[in-house]
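Lab manual, section 2.4: Encoding a predicted structure.

Procedure: take the sequence of the chain (126 residues), apply the prediction step described in section 2.3, and record the output as structure tokens. A sample record is shown.
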Amino acid sequence: MAKLSQDDLLAQFEEMTLIELSEFVKAFEEKFDVTAAAAVAVAGPVSGAPVDAVEEQDEFDVILEGAGEKKIQVIKVVRELTSLGLKEAKDLVDGTPKPVLEKVAKEAAEKAAESLKAAGASVTVK
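Recorded output:
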């Protein structure tokens, strides 16, 4: 059997469907007892599928990292931002780091973070 160059192999992979490529990767993993997770990630564009532009993040999480010195003020702000009762808001503030808001718009996340920071809390927006 003739040895194939890297370009020859890539040309062969380029002609394969995603299902065929997936089956090949599984067989390769079994034969050589390895995991080719990175190769699967690279295989998407090689297979001829269009590459989408990197999407801008449109959902953000507001994570409360700490209450600071004004814990009561932070609890009040948490209650304003969420539909939590007093006990639930206090438990959230006591159990930091915890998400206060999840999957919200950028403007809402920034506004919530500013409110929490103004109350003395340390906040991260992800």
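Check your result against the sample. Confidence is low (pLDDT under 50) at residues 39-43.
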